[in-house]
Structures are given as C-alpha cells and as structure tokens.
Amino acid sequence: MAEDAGSSDAEWPANLNVEELLQQGWRPTPFRQFILKLHSRCNLACDYCYMYEMADQGWRRQPRRMARVTIDRVAGRIAEHATTHGLKSVEIILHGGEPLLAGIEHTRYAVTALREALGEVELVVQAQTNGVLLDEAFLSLFAELDVHVGVSLDGDAEGHDRHRRRATGKGTHAEVRAGLERLTASGYRHLFGGLLCTLDLANDPVVTYKALLEFRPPMIDFLLPHGNWDAPPPGHSRWTTPYGDWLVAVFDRWYAAPVRETQIRLFGEIIRLLFGRPSRSEAIGLSPVAVVVVETDGSIEQVDTLKSAYEGATGTPLHTFRDSFDTALLLPSVAARQIGARALSGECASCEIARVCGGGLYPHRYRSGSGFRNPSVYCRDLYRLITHIRDVVSDDVALLARSAPAGPAR
C-alpha cells in the first residue's frame, strides 16, 4: 500500500522534507511501542469503531491471523531495532480487531517468539481486549507469560450497550463484566492494566466514572470519539464545549476525592505538562510519538486511529519482510509526529496552551485539502479542559504556598 494513498501531495505532511530536517540537526526517536495486529477481525460490532466503521476499510484485505512465519520476522525486526538503538526495554501491545481471537496457542507462540528474539531487552507485553473472551484459560496463559490486560468498558450497562454490541445488536456489558470479574480476582488482578472508555455525551460523566471505579482499575483512559473536520464527532459544536464540559465533570469528581481512586491518563498528563514535564501520551503534548503498527500480513503502518481520517491514511510502502523499522522513521508521515511544535498549525502555535495541548490527537486534526496541519476538531473542548485543570491546580499550589511555614530568618 502506498503511503498516504488517500491524500494529495498538497496535504501535509506529504510534502514534509525529511532530508532538510536531518540537515537542520533533527534526529528521529526510535520506536519503543509496537502494536501487533495479531488478529484482524472482531467478535463485536461497535458502531463507533475506527477499524470497521470509519473511512479506511483496509482490514478487509488483511489475513485474519498473523502467521507464525510473520511473527518470527516481526520479532526479529523489533530485536534489530532495539539493538541498533541500544534500547533497554520495548513495549508490545497485542491488538486487533480482537487479539484473543488468535487463540491460546497462537498467542503463546507470539509472546514466546518475541521474548526469545529480544533476549536481554526487557519486554513489556499488554493485550488490549474487549473482554468477552477473558476466560480462565487465557488468564492462566497471561499469568504464565506475564502479559498485562487492558479492557474496553464504556461505563454502566446502559452506556456500554448503546454502542458495544454483537452483530445481532445484543449488548455485551454482562459478558465484559464477567471477564473483568475473572481478571480482577485475587489470582489475576496483578495483570490488570486498566480500562479504556470511549466518551459518549449521552452518558452522565460521573455515573460513567463510578461504574468504571467498581472494578478498581489502576488506570482509566477516557477516549474522545474519533472524528475530524470532514467528519465531526457526534454532538460536535464550533461554539460550545460539550466534550470539554463532560471531562471537566469527571475531573472535578476525580480530583476532589479524599483518597486517590485511580489514575486517569489524560488528566495526569495534562498536570505533568502544566508543571513543565514531557508528555508520555500521543493524545496530548509535543513529545515525539514512538509508536508503530504491524498488520497481520507483516506490513508496517502508522498508528491505527488514523483509519478514521481517510482510506489509506495509515499506509506506508514498507513491510517487515523487506524493510527495517529504521526505514519507517524517515517517512514524512512518521517524522511529522516527532518534530513537536514544528508540526503545529499557525493557529495552534500561537495558542497560550500549545505546549500542553500539542494540537490534540493527530487524527482529529485532519481536513481534506490541508491534511493534518490544523487544530484538533476538539480544539475548544481541549482548551476548556486544560484551562480548567490549570486554574484548579494553580489555586491549590498557591494555597499550599500561603500555608507553608516561613523559612528561617536571614
């Protein structure tokens, strides 16, 4: 698949000059997170899914399962990349579709092959699943192989079942709950990585948050529904901030709790950035994105959420049977996500919170004709959330400063 097959040469970053960047002293950041599409199909039919329900339908051309010979090649390429850059650790995310559809033995083979290929390099493995196949057999395997598990859950039964359904239309909350109850039992709770929750304006924010807390997750990721300027998300408004207001309500409940109940990645990253620390998430901030995807056929792609933008948006001309991951680092579309403020639109660059917002999640910036050099379609919502968190935290810091005992007289 040709890189950026669905965009024109005029759309940024197709015309980004990587050679010029190198001459100016820029150097790429090696990949540290590898998303392996172990299985390309899913057993659910969630109506907001960027893989199956949005612009890019490339999954139809992919083999259902990553073949063992492909797994071996990918493992070798990841080891090669780690050795070249002296990486001490890498993270592998088993993904799909639904990765558990690959089966017990195929999953065992994949994780074992990766560990053997990487040798002394620390390997952190996580499976991201919809949760309905989390049975005793899989959990036993994950405990044996030290694979952590992230689960998608959109709140209480009503909120979850509105979108996360079987092809028959049947909701899956009861099945996911059963899987989570098995995962959070005493023998497996240490494998629990956290919950992914896609925000829905129809769901009460605090009710949603409390429903997630029921499982005592170590981390919650609240995800904005994927959309862009050509295909805005549900309820999007140019003049109001419905998504920002929703997230502010959760933040206030989370921040005011007398004891920290869980981590919320988005809020934690915003607070880090407000204090001058670098971002650790591609959703916000200006840190280089060091993530790459390998499809079931072994082809190298960009992060899969770009499938929400247009057909071919994730594509590159590279394949693990021909190309190293270092080659991918020099593609304009990959470099664009590693050059920080230079990738921002003029409007974003002049914004007071540009260093914190970072333009928002890259796929949400797309507009046909100009590509990805635009503000996020969630620009106003992000401004609402970030300035609210800034003001709340600043007030607390000022209060602490006023209440701190005076130092010794000089």
Brief characterization of the structure:
The chain has 410 residues and is of the alpha/beta class. The chain has helices at 18-23, 68-85, 104-118, 136-145, 157-161, 173-183, 205-213, 242-256, 265-274, 325-329, 332-335, 346-349, 354-357, 379-403, and strands at 33-37, 89-95, 122-129, 147-152, 192-198, 219-223, 263-264, 291-294, 300-301. It is built from 14 helices and nine strands.
Overview of this protein structure:
By secondary structure, the chain is of the alpha/beta class. Helix content is 34%, strand content 11%. The chain is built from 14 helices and nine strands. The protein has helices at 18-23, 68-85, 104-118, 136-145, 157-161, 173-183, 205-213, 242-256, 265-274, 325-329, 332-335, 346-349, 354-357, 379-403, and strands at 33-37, 89-95, 122-129, 147-152, 192-198, 219-223, 263-264, 291-294, 300-301. A nine-stranded mixed β-sheet has the order 7-6-5-4-3-2-1-8-9. Strand 1, helix 2 and strand 2 form a beta-alpha-beta unit. Helix 2 packs parallel to helix 3 and helix 3 (104-118) packs parallel to helix 4 (136-145).
